[in-house]
Structure formats: structure tokens, C-alpha cells
């Protein structure tokens, strides 16, 4: 494994979250390439820069390279993966020439199964896995907003601490993304899965922004119940999750991310497939194998599957 430093950073999946990370990294002085298939978004960034609206202000970030994955030149030192889990294999295959034996690949994707997917494309010792609680919304081509705070927790996927863990964390931390090297990252990932299984799927089914779930007592109550179902599955797999920390994160999001529309809700509104399979779906599958009842998680999975099926039926024929 090469010990060369990280100078070229690429973001695979430059939607709301990928663009937020790419923009903040570029502002901190890093050379960043945004890779996506949204041509209108890429063109807006090339022409006018990325409009980034955060609690620090409204500005445009220039100097970003923005192109489709197959157009990426050279090899990345660090590839941050933000694609939806259902697109991971195809996305990584499209950047095969952009990956070298030295490239560190950090998945900050939602759901379960991401580490396994990335390890099918690069050596396991090149793979880092993590989670982030930063909120982000895409408000149109070349325009991303993020309000509130978040963190990043990351570690090597195989559990071996390497210098790359600290280097990647330092780069993200210097960009204001509050990243820590965390050997207990799998607990953080499962807690994020529980968070998303509750809030993403509830918002997607109801059409509510996160804060609107507090309109009736049953909203937060249902979110808490889903969290506890998911964490029961995590504990069965030997993951030392923190129930109270996760429940507090959900309560904080409902209280402070009041207008945030989670990506799963955005996908439903746009008629796109959601990540329900890698979140509620994966939890439900593991729960069935373990003989653990997760009725609310299963119900939300079924409702989202029905909504996706209806969206497919309503697609206009070509």
C-alpha cells in the first residue's frame, strides 16, 4: 500500500450530501472532483460554481471539477461514496479506471451492505466505512443547503487502524465536518440505520418534513419504537449500540431539523426508487433470520414498497 498523501479527492454521488462535502472540502483548500449523472446539476456547477447555503452563510464555491463518473481523469487518492446503496455496484464499476492501488475509498452511505459492495471493487485494506449526521438538501441544479450541525465517524472496514484513517479524518475535520476516528464505527452505523429506519421511512410514507412528525404524539412515539426494534437486531449481531444516544438523536432531529425533507421523502416525491431495501429491508431480513419481531419496521417497509410499485405503474409509457 502506497503511503502517498491525499491531494486528489473525488465524490462519487454528488447529490445533496456529496455536494455539501465536496463544497466544504474545496473551501478548505482541497482539490475536489464531483462525479454524478445529474447533467443539469453538473453543468450549473461548471458554469456558476456550487451555491452552498449553510449556517455560515450563502456563497458560491468555485474551482470544483464536475463531470460524469466515466469522464473522471487520473486516479483519486480519496474517493468518498455517497451514492444510494442500490446504485453502488454500477457506480463503482463506472469509475474503475479512477481507482488505483493507493486509493482510499470511504463509504458514508446510508444503510447496510456498503462495505461488502466496496470491497468487491478495491482491496479491503483500502476501504473505510463511516456515517454522518449532517443534513443536506438539493434545492435545484448547483444549489445545496445544510442547516444545523452534524458529525462524521469513520474507521477502516476491516477493523485495522491505519494511518489513512487519521489522515482522512483530519481532512474532513479541517473542512468543518467534525470527523473522528472511531473503532466502534459499526455501532454508529447501526444507530444511523435505526435513525433512518425511523425518520426517513416515516417522512417518506407521510410526506412530512422531519419536524412535522411532532404534530401529534404518535409521530415521535412511532419513531422511538422503530429505533428500538432496529437496535434489538444490532445487539443480536453483537453490536454495542447505545439506545439512549440514538433516541436522543432522533428527538434532536425532530426538534431542530424542522423543515428538512430526508432523501427518502425526496425520492418518493420525485418518483424515484428509495433506499428502503438497504435500511428497513435489510433490518427486517436479519430480524427474520434471528427470530426477532420488528412489526413497525416491517410495516414501513411494506408501505414504501407499495408506494414504489405505484410510482412504477404510473410512469408514462415511452
TrEMBL record:
Molecular function via GO: 2-dehydropantoate 2-reductase activity; NADP binding
SUPFAM superfamilies cross-referenced by the UniProt entry: 6-phosphogluconate dehydrogenase C-terminal domain-like, NAD(P)-binding Rossmann-fold domains
Swiss-Prot/TrEMBL keywords: NADP, Oxidoreductase, Pantothenate biosynthesis
GO cellular component: cytoplasm
Gene Ontology biological process terms from the UniProt entry: pantothenate biosynthetic process
Catalysed reaction equations from the record: (R)-pantoate + NADP(+) = 2-dehydropantoate + NADPH + H(+)
EC numbers, comma separated: 1.1.1.169
All copies of domain Ketopantoate reductase N-terminal, residue ranges: 9-152
Membrane-spanning intervals of the chain: none
Record-linked InterPro entries: 6-PGluconate_DH-like_C_sf, 6PGD_dom2, ApbA, Ketopantoate_reductase, KPA_reductase, KPR_N, NAD(P)-bd_dom_sf
Enzyme kind, highest EC tier: oxidoreductase
Source taxon at top rank: Bacteria
Pathway annotation: Cofactor biosynthesis; (R)-pantothenate biosynthesis; (R)-pantoate from 3-methyl-2-oxobutanoate: step 2/2
Domain (Ketopantoate reductase C-terminal): residue spans on this chain: 184-308
Family: Belongs to the ketopantoate reductase family.
Cited function: Catalyzes the NADPH-dependent reduction of ketopantoate into pantoic acid.
Descriptive protein name: 2-dehydropantoate 2-reductase
Organism: Pseudomonas delhiensis
Amino acid at each position: 500500500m502506497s503511503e502517498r498523501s491525499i491531494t486528489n479527492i473525488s465524490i462519487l454521488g454528488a447529490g445533496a450530501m456529496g455536494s455539501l462535502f465536496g463544497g466544504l472540502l474545496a473551501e478548505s483548500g482541497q482539490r475536489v472532483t464531483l462525479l454524478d449523472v445529474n447533467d443539469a446539476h453538473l453543468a450549473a456547477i461548471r458554469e456558476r460554481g456550487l451555491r452552498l447555503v449553510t449556517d455560515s452563510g450563502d456563497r458560491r464555491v468555485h474551482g470544483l471539477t464536475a463531470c460524469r463518473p466515466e469522464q473522471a481523469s487520473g486516479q483519486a487518492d480519496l474517493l468518498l461514496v455517497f451514492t444510494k446503496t442500490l446504485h453502488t455496484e454500477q457506480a463503482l464499476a463506472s469509475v474503475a479506471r479512477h481507482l488505483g492501488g493507493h486509493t482510499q475509498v470511504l463509504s458514508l452511505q446510508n444503510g447496510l451492505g456498503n462495505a461488502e459492495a466496496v470491497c468487491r471493487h478495491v482491496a479491503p485494506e483500502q476501504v473505510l466505512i463511516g456515517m454522518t449526521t449532517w443534513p443536506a438538501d438539493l434545492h435545484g441544479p448547483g444549489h445545496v443547503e445544510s442547516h444545523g450541525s452534524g458529525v462524521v465517524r469513520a474507521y477502516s472496514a476491516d477493523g485495522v487502524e491505519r494511518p489513512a484513517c487519521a489522515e482522512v479524518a483530519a481532512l474532513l475535520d479541517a473542512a468543518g465536518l467534525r470527523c473522528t476516528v472511531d473503532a466502534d464505527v459499526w455501532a454508529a452505523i447501526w444507530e444511523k440505520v435505526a435513525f433512518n429506519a425511523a425518520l426517513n421511512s416515516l417522512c417518506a410514507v407521510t410526506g412530512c418534513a422531519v419536524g412535522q412528525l411532532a404534530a401529534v404524539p404518535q409521530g415521535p412515539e412511532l419513531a422511538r419504537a422503530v429505533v428500538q426494534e432496529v437496535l434489538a437486531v444490532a445487539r443480536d449481531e453483537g453490536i454495542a449500540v447505545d439506545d439512549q444516544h440514538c433516541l436522543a438523536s432522533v428527538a434532536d432531529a425532530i426538534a431542530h431539523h424542522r423543515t428538512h425533507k430526508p432523501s427518502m421523502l425526496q425520492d418518493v416525491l420525485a418518483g424515484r426508487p428509495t433506499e428502503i431495501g438497504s435500511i428497513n429491508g435489510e433490518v427486517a431480513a436479519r430480524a427474520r433470520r434471528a427470530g426477532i419481531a420488528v412489526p413497525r419496521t416491517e410495516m414501513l417497509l411494506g408501505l414504501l414498497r407499495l408506494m414504489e410499485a405505484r410510482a412504477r405503474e404510473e410512469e408514462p409509457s415511452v
